[in-house]
Amino acid sequence: MDVVLFQNNQKNTNKIINKKLIKVSIKYSHSILAIMKYRPRLIDSELKEDLEAFGAVLIVGPKWCGKTTTASQVAKSTLRMQDRDTREKNIALAELKPSELLVGDNPRLIDEWQTAPQLWDSVRLSVDLRDEPGLYILTGSTTVDRERIDHSGAGRIDTLKMGTMSLFESGDSIGSVSLKEMFDGTSNVSGMSGATVEKMAFLTIRGGWPQSVDRSENVARRHVRSYCETIIKVEVIGSDGKRRNPYKMRSVLKSLSRNISSPLSKTAIIDDVNSKEGTSITMNTLNDYLDALRDIYVLDDIPAWNPNLRSSASARAADTICMCDPAIAAYFLGASQRDLMTDPKTFGLLFESLVIRDLRVYAQSLDGDIFRYRDSTGLEADAIIHLHDGRWGALEIKLGDAWVDKGAHNLLKLRKKVNTDDMGEPSFLAVITGSDCAYTRADGVHVIPITCLRN
Question: In angstroms, rounded to a whole number, what is the distance separating the alpha carbons of residues 265 and 123?
């Protein structure tokens, strides 16, 4: 990059070139370009397909996960509803004549559309009248009261869910093992990622926010801290206009973090908060706070998997409360990379949360969903990926190699329990680990480091 700095005198004739400043400017410019460079996301192809099939697409997910940046790659015009320079004017216009805000080249991106919920019905009507695909992309970081919307938008507006970056998207997984290929019948897997336990601890506390990728632990932790404190002090207080106690919200988040990746009843959360946080909450308060966290996509529960079983055991029906990114739990636990290295139990729970985050991204890209299995005998499977065409695979998540045998045993036991006459045989059984070598065991169970996995 050629950079020349000019300094003009009053007669605009003298040109002064400072070589040191040029070097600094070049270095600075390169760093800015590196920060601004777009990292492809797996949702890119889903967005493209949706824009070919629907008049509008809504992208939802937690703040800072990259919704606007991703949408901007294909949008030809943009309306930023939370731009302070134009926010009040746009809100007023949305009340008087919302169709004016839709004027622009298509696809038109309407960022944080929920600032003016009436835009939803205007978009839906515009799609009906124009009868064209790919007209609008809406992004939102909070849910909207459906009573403020006249029409669901079914058939006109499709919804895509976006999370923080998976390790494959951030470049931290070599992607030698494909989830799709396992569903298609791959019998053996292989790969050597070179990941260390120290690296896994860092990736766990760093999180998957695009701004944190390729940054130091200190910078990444500052990003996470800012995000988490914003949750407590701003987002859950104002997302629905209802004020909530920041101290109690922090206590709830700390309790959820202590028990991350574990099936936990609401009664157990209340008991934990009341005994360890020096405060007290009621069931009504807890339900309200959990709903508020779901509204801003901080919580992303895993539904229970209820297959037809051969035995008399019954599958548990309760969902598992889960955070959108393990770094949130690490923050509320005050856990650093070094802390995780000296606390294997906490590390294991947070690692499971990291894997679930990645599996969500990969499953969605394959038109599938993720579930958790637990039955009345105590048998568990950390993740079931069920594709919409009926195929399914079961996974256990174990931080270290020492627990692989136990994970494989559980998966083989689950396969015997499931009524495969109704459900079909599993496409694969796999233990996801924090180690560095992928291989297939003699019993057919795949062992896959999360740093080798992709969609």
Answer: 40
* Residues 57 and 201 sit within 8 Å (Cβ to Cβ): no
Burial per residue of 153-165, b for 16 or more beta-carbon CB atoms within 10 angstroms, e otherwise = beebbbebbbbbb
Q: Which residues of the chain have pLDDT under 50?
A: 1-35
Alpha-carbon span 100 to 104, nearest angstrom: 9
432 C-beta neighbours (distance < 10 Å), count: 27
Q: Summarize pLDDT for 139-162 with one digit per residue, the tens.
A: 998 877 666 665 666 778 999 999
- Given a contact cutoff of 8 angstroms between Cβ atoms, the answer to whether 265 and 318 are in contact is yes
Tokens of 92: 């007023």
The answer, yes or no, to whether the previous bond of 107 is cis (omega within 30 of 0) is yes
pLDDT tens, residue by residue, 323-372: 999 999 999 999 999 999 999 999 999 999 999 999 999 999 999 999 99
Q: Rounded distance, CA 453 to CA 455, Å?
A: 7
Write down the pLDDT at residue 82. Answer: 85
Pairwise CA distance, residues 70 & 162, whole Å = 10
Distance CA 271, CA 251 (A): 12
Residue with tokens 């065409």: 389
Rounded distance between C-alpha atoms, residue 141 and residue 112, angstroms: 7
**The pairing of beta strand 380-387 with beta strand 392-398:** antiparallel
Whether this prediction's pTM lies above 0.90 is answered by no
Whether 242 and 299 have beta carbons less than 8 Å apart is answered as no
Query: Which stretches does DSSP call E strand in 271-419?
Result: 368-374, 380-387, 392-398
Rounded CA gap, 352 and 355, in Å? 5
Distance from C-alpha of 79 to C-alpha of 59, rounded to nearest angstrom: 15
Task: Identify whether the C-beta of residue 208 lies closer than 8 Å to the C-beta of residue 223.
Answer: no
User: Is the dihedral angle over the CA atoms 231, 234, 239, 243 positive or is it negative?
Assistant: positive
Quick check: 104 and 135 in contact, CB under 8 A?
no
Q: What is the DSSP string of 20-59?
A: HHHHHHHHHHHHHHHHHPPPP-THHHHHHHHHHH-SEEEE
**Going from the N-terminus, what domains does the chain have, and what CATH number goes with each?**
1-37 (no CATH), 43-161 (3.40.50.300), 167-454 (no CATH)
